[in-house]
Amino acid sequence: MTHIITKDEYFTALNDERTSAILERTQRQAMDLKHLQDAWILYHLRDASELRILEVGGGHSRALRFVADANEVWNIDDFGSVGTPRADRQVPKIPGVRMVPEALGSFSPELPDGYFDVVVSISVIEHVPFDVYPKFWADHARVMKAGGLALHAVDFYIGDEPDPVAERRADEMFQAWEDSGLVPEEISLDRPIVFRSSFASNPDYGMWVWNAYAPGLTALRSAAQSVSLGAVLRRG
């Protein structure tokens, strides 16, 4: 189902022994939106075995590195180095993870057509500009197997009243998926998007910490809740 991740889903993931064991290894504090996003993704992959998994924008692959022992895991990330010669990019070496220092949407020949069973991202899609969506999602569809699965945890700020940025992001994503042949599993997202008490959300302390890193959003964090869309897609 494609919808805002709920408290019930988060609690279910935390109660799952396999998922919680991996979460402990990520060393991500629970007072952070990414902790619940990690939990949602890892719960979906808790039984993954012998799959080809591509992480998009995974950086140091905080969570997905821990499923590499039973799967073939790749990570495509330009490491903030667009325009920097590839040889000079600071690319980490992660045991069991094949790194591709490019951006999805570049149609890198290193990513074979129709190769991956699963494509995953955690807190990445909200940073992709809307004008890049056509290339990004077309490349995404290109590398997936027919019938392959995609799991994306996407940050949203929502409050008591509809927010035009959140509405546009949802509209742009849904249209890009359709254009790229990606089919969401049962969209359950009331429109306009407003906060509900059943949604899992970033604790206020976590948002206060984020103010130090992205002060431009301080006013928004004081008036909105930080939640995550959990998108489940299939390649048609």
Unreliable stretches, pLDDT < 50, 5 or more residues? none
Secondary structural class: alpha/beta
Gyration radius (Cα, Å) is 17 Å
Query: How large a portion of the residues is in β-strands, by DSSP E?
Result: 15-25%
Per DSSP E runs of 2 or more residues, the count of β-strands stands at 8
Using the alpha-carbon principal axes, give the shape. globular
Average pLDDT works out at 94
What would CATH call the homologous superfamily? Vaccinia Virus protein VP39
SSE ordering: EHHHEEEEHEHEHHE
Query: How many distinct folded domains?
Result: 1
CATH third-tier fold name:
Rossmann fold
User: Span between N and C termini?
Assistant: 16 Å
Helical amount among residues, as a percent range?
25-40%
CATH uppermost class: Alpha Beta
Helical run tally: 7
Q: What CATH architecture do you see?
A: 3-Layer(aba) Sandwich
Can you offer a commentary on this structure?
This protein is an alpha/beta fold and 236 residues long. It has one domain: Vaccinia Virus protein VP39 (Rossmann fold, 3-Layer(aba) Sandwich), CATH 3.40.50. Helix content is 32%, strand content 22%. The chain contains seven helices and eight strands; from the N terminus they run βαααββββαβαβααβ. It has helices spanning 7-15, 17-26, 33-44, 133-143, 164-180, 204-213, 218-223, and strands spanning 3-4, 52-56, 72-76, 97-100, 116-122, 144-158, 182-184, 225-235. Strands 1, 2, 3, 4, 5, 6, 7 and 8 form an eight-stranded mixed β-sheet that branches. Helix 1 packs across helix 3, helix 2 (17-26) packs across helix 3 and helix 4 (133-143) packs across helix 5. The longest helix is centred in the C-terminal third of the chain and has 17 residues, at 164-180. The relative contact order is 0.19. The model has no long low-confidence stretch (mean pLDDT 94).
